[in-house]
Write a structure and sequence with these properties.
It is built from eight helices and seven strands. With about 220 residues, it is α+β, with helices and mostly antiparallel strands.
């Protein structure tokens, strides 16, 4: 399980694209995809909605946090420049797009079909070990000011809800025997109670956990067939 600590992200003093490149290399490595060919690009910034001290343009376009597409030599992943100020969100974006890369080569659709591929990709990012980042970045609400205008802003990232992310993360923790404290220490305070409840629910489902534990040996057999 990847945690937002210097042990996992020791690259200090970097800024801008150098920081993004270093974080991306770390995320690829922790996802087990360090050797997968992939290019990383920063998107163009969005138009400024503020055209005067008290004048804002409504419905200005907003680019996605990240994108993925197949390329001639592997894949191309992009990220929004605003995320350079939010490493937690940047890691979540990279994990999601790498999960796109991983699941894009699947020979069968995810449960529910390809129309819910984005939702399955969020789950894939949790499976890869980035559940803390995915949960913490799902919803952000903050105050802002630029000296002339002050207000509140909110931003959503991802396709499934915080409880759903934490439920998948709890399943992963239960299967691997990861102590709850290794998650609770890094979750937003508002999410800790949710995680405790979903983990307790998961731990009561012993028969389901046993079935899931049987998937790993089966997948190993398929991989070596």
């Amino acid at each position: 399980m990847v945690q937002p600590t210097p042990r996992f992200f020791p690259d200090r003093g970097l800024r801008g694209t150098a920081m993004a490149d270093a974080i991306f290399a770390r995320v690829k490595g922790y996802a087990g995809m360090g050797t997968w060919p992939c290019k990383l690009h920063m998107q163009e910034d969005d138009p400024d909605a503020k055209v005067g001290p008290t004048l804002l343009v409504q419905n200005t376009p907003h680019s996605p946090a990240g994108t993925f597409r197949k390329a001639d030599a592997g894949a191309l992943i992009t990220y929004h420049p605003r995320q350079l100020d939010d490493p937690m969100s940047l890691v979540a974006t990279f994990a999601h797009e790498l999960a796109h890369y991983l699941t894009g080569g699947a020979t069968e659709p995810p449960p529910g079909g390809w129309e819910v591929w984005e939702h399955a990709t969020d789950m894939g990012a949790v499976f890869l070990g980035f559940g803390i980042f995915m949960a913490n970045s799902r919803f952000n609400f903050s105050q802002y000011t630029d000296g002339q205008v002050m207000g509140w802003k909110w931003r959503q990232q991802g396709y499934v809800s915080e409880p759903e992310i934490l439920h998948m993360h709890a399943i992963r923790c239960a299967l691997l025997g990861t102590p709850p404290r290794e998650t609770l220490a890094y979750l937003k305070p508002s999410l800790r109670g949710i995680f405790k409840r979903v983990l307790a629910d998961v731990q009561r489902q012993n028969h389901v956990l046993q079935e899931l534990r049987g998937v790993a040996p089966l997948m190993a057999e398929v991989a070596h067939a």
